[in-house]
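Each field is set out as follows.
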Amino acid sequence: MTRFRGGPPQEPEDAPPPEPIHVPITDVLDLHDFHPREVLPVTEAYLEAAREKGLVVVRLIHGKGKGVQRARLHQLLREHPDVADFEQAPAEHGGWGATRVQLREGPDTR
């Protein structure tokens, strides 16, 4: 790994791709563990895997912050074919820092 003064570490161009990270599929996905640019692709893969596993309701923890991540996530959920509905999680499950998602039941919609 090469580090340039004042910048983030840089991987050499011929470096092998990073090893995939195994994320267990439960009814909760904490997005704090991911870089902001990974949040949408990780969420899409998670929703597909959750539906395949038979989960009907899941919770996405995006944090409270300024709401940028929440807005991006909600836009994805509005357009996602596996999502029947979504809403702010109840206060005891994260409130406005988390989103409760109802997945479609039945045959795959894709």
Remarks:
- The two ends are 40 Å apart (CA to CA).
- The chain has one domain: 23-103.
- The chain has two helices and six strands.
